[in-house]
């Protein structure tokens, strides 16, 4: 790990250090900052263009073709409900997306902090990507199956 203003160490000396010379703070945080701005802009757009109006943002292709709710169905409505301060309605729209948001924001903030400090190596999310992918995929499939069955109808958007 390097300090602000210090040149990164050669990659063979420290795992995760970058290969080239020192980089500016903006160059290190730019991908995460741009991603955060894009997500923020989409969130503002979801606040002002209500996805509760049928077809205002289109339809889920899986639902349109099969009538099956995917794990993301209702996610846009959930974000809209959260921007309006209605947690209960957001959880009703898509509990999976609402519960996943703090995890994603936490990882984004951790990566941003590391980049800010000059740690540009392998981020936490990549170190545990395989485990996270398996767990998230399993939870998404279980959630999708549950919300499309009679006993999980309360999970449907």
Q: Can you give a write-up of this model?
A:
The chain is mainly alpha-helical. The protein has one domain (25-151). Helix content is 59%, strand content 0%. The chain contains 6 helices and no strands. It has helices at 25-48, 61-66, 75-83, 87-117, 124-127, 129-147. The radius of gyration is 20 Å and the shape is globular. Residues 9-14 have low confidence and may be disordered.
Give the overall silhouette.
globular
Order of helices and strands: HHHHHH
Q: First CA to last CA: what distance?
A: 45 Å
> How many discrete domains?
1
Helix fraction bin: 55-70%
Strand content: under 5%
Radius of gyration: 20 Å
- Spans of at least 5 consecutive residues whose pLDDT stays below 50 are 9-14
The strand count comes to: 0
Summing up helix and strand content along with how strands pair, one would put the structural category as mainly alpha
Count of DSSP H/I helices: 6
Major sheet: size, sense and barrel closure?
Answer: none
Q: Kindly state the mean pLDDT as a whole number?
A: 84
């Amino acid at each position: 790990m390097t300090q602000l203003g210090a040149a990164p160490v050669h990659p063979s000396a420290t795992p995760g250090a970058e290969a080239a010379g020192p980089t500016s703070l903006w160059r290190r945080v730019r991908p995460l900052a741009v991603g955060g701005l894009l997500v923020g802009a989409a969130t503002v757009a979801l606040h002002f263009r209500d996805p509760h109006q049928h077809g205002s943002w289109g339809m889920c292709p899986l639902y349109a073709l099969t009538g099956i709710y995917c794990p993301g169905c209702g996610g846009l409505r959930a974000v809209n409900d959260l921007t309006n301060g209605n947690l209960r309605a957001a959880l009703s729209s898509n509990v999976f997306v609402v519960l996943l948001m703090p995890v994603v924001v936490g990882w984004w903030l951790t990566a941003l902090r590391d980049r800010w400090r000059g740690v540009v190596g392998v981020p936490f999310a990549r170190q545990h990507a395989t485990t996270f992918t398996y767990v998230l995929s399993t939870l998404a499939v279980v959630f999708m199956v549950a919300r499309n069955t009679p006993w999980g109808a309360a999970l449907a958007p």
